[in-house]
Design brief:
By secondary structure, the chain is α/β, with parallel strands linked by helices. Helices cover about 35% and strands about 10% of the residues. Helix 1 packs parallel to helix 2, helix 7 (about 220-235) runs parallel beside helix 13 and helix 8 (about 245-255) packs across helix 13. It is globular.
């Protein structure tokens, strides 16, 4: 198992208090035992462990993702030290290092932008759509909405950063999708991604305020919301089209580009680990939603290698999460594209990770819609080379399968053991 990206939690506190945050508000309180900021000793240990891992696995590039909490609570000198050391220790061995940072944007100013330009750090900013929607959940510690301050930070970044910041938005299906998309376009951004709300089978996505569908018919609220945006986006001319990662990824996977896989989609290994402010090595933070201390492995960069950290049962299942799938996924015609979804959305206290994603029906509907849209856009002489499959076709297909007669993979007991 090979790690090619590290999420570096350089600050364990935040100047916002987003209600859906898996770090602070979904049941895991281990952040209280973390130092507020990462120190230089842990930076030194981390850089040495990255070099060791790259050399042992013949990696010629590596990605550092600065995260938090809010990473801009860290001191400016920290970034200068981190990157100068990484370049001295790692890049000097002809291993290319890439740097990115995810921020809420509130503290972004011209001075930060100058530093990030000098250090070649790519910036992403979190904003959940137009003001009324963003300010429902993304609030400060006094309950005040963050939209105006985030947009101010975004505009500073757009003015002073060499690489214009992209946006990351958590989907809110109670929002108007057309208004949501129009608002982001009016902010003059070039690319953004849409994040599925963190959820498990025990902590379901928020659909309480929506009209209930027939209980016998699985809901596809998220797919319906995304399809409305996709239809507008896909019809736009290429010169004006914003890059939307979730759509680009699905299209690339439909076209057979396996390298497009990520944590949420595709069948590739997930070579990502998290380093907490105290140096603890963990799997991705979204798994904190599965229980207090769920991601704790006992590994720390002072005394363990990445290979050591990957030897835990949870790390192995996470790394192979698009391959160790429940039986239904193994029979699915579009599994190459959805990959079973992000592993935390498959979790339940009853069955561990031996469940399909809480977004399974959304994936089925969204992916078949995009796939058929792509087929319809091909020259007519090629359209007969493809067999379309619709969401209704998939439901019929699954209803006809007798899963009790299907051979159970040996790894199922491992998935169920959490």
């Amino acid at each position: 198992m090979i790690v090619n990206s590290i999420v570096v939690k350089i600050a364990s506190r935040c100047n916002l208090n987003c209600s859906y945050c898996y770090v602070y508000n979904l049941g895991d309180n281990t952040y209280l035992k973390q130092p507020k900021l990462m120190n230089y000793n842990n930076v030194d240990s981390l850089i040495l462990k990255v070099l060791e891992h790259c050399q042992n696995n013949n990696l010629n590039n590596f990605q550092f993702i600065f995260h938090g909490g809010e990473p801009l609570l860290q001191k400016e000198d920290f970034f200068t030290y981190f990157i100068s050391e990484a370049n001295r220790v790692i890049a000097s061995k002809k291993i290319q290092c890439f740097y990115s940072l995810q921020t809420n944007g509130i503290l972004l100013n011209e001075k930060w932008c100058k530093l990030f330009n000098e250090l070649n750090i790519q910036i992403g900013i979190s904003l959940d759509g137009y003001k009324e929607i963003n300010d429902k959940y993304r609030v400060d510690h006094k309950g005040n909405g963050s939209y105006d301050n985030v947009v101010k930070g975004l505009q500073i970044g757009q003015k002073f950063l060499n690489n214009k910041p992209g946006l990351l938005s958590v989907m809110d299906i109670e929002s108007d999708p057309v208004k949501f998309y129009t608002n982001l376009k009016n902010l003059d951004i070039k690319h953004f991604d849409l994040l599925w709300p963190h959820a498990t089978h025990d902590i379901q996505p928020n659909i309480e305020n929506l009209t209930k569908e027939d209980p016998k018919t699985p809901n596809t609220f998220y797919a319906n919301w995304l399809i409305k945006i996709f239809e507008i986006w896909y019809a736009e001319k290429n010169k004006t089209k914003i890059r939307i990662t979730v759509f680009d990824t699905i299209i690339d996977l439909i076209l057979g580009k396996e390298y497009a896989s990520n944590e949420d989609l595709g069948l590739s290994d997930v070579g990502l680990l998290v380093i907490e402010t105290n140096g603890d090595i963990e799997v991705v933070g979204a798994l904190k939603i599965c229980g207090n201390g769920f991601t704790k492995s006992g590994a720390n960069i002072k005394n363990h290698t990445f290979s050591d950290a990957l030897e835990t049962k949870l790390a192995k299942v996470y790394y192979n999460s698009h391959k160790l799938l429940p039986v239904k996924c193994t029979k699915c015609p579009i599994v190459d594209i959805c990959g079973g979804g992000h592993i935390h959305t498959r979790f339940s206290k009853l069955n561990g990770f031996n469940n399909t994603s809480v977004y399974c029906n959304d994936f089925l509907k969204l992916i078949t819609h995009i796939q058929n849209t792509i087929f319809d856009s091909l020259p007519k002489k090629y359209q007969n080379d493809f067999d379309k499959i619709t969401y209704d076709d998939l439901n019929t297909y699954f209803n006809e399968i007798n899963f009790s007669l299907t051979e159970t993979p040996q790894y199922i007991d491992e998935l169920s053991s959490f």
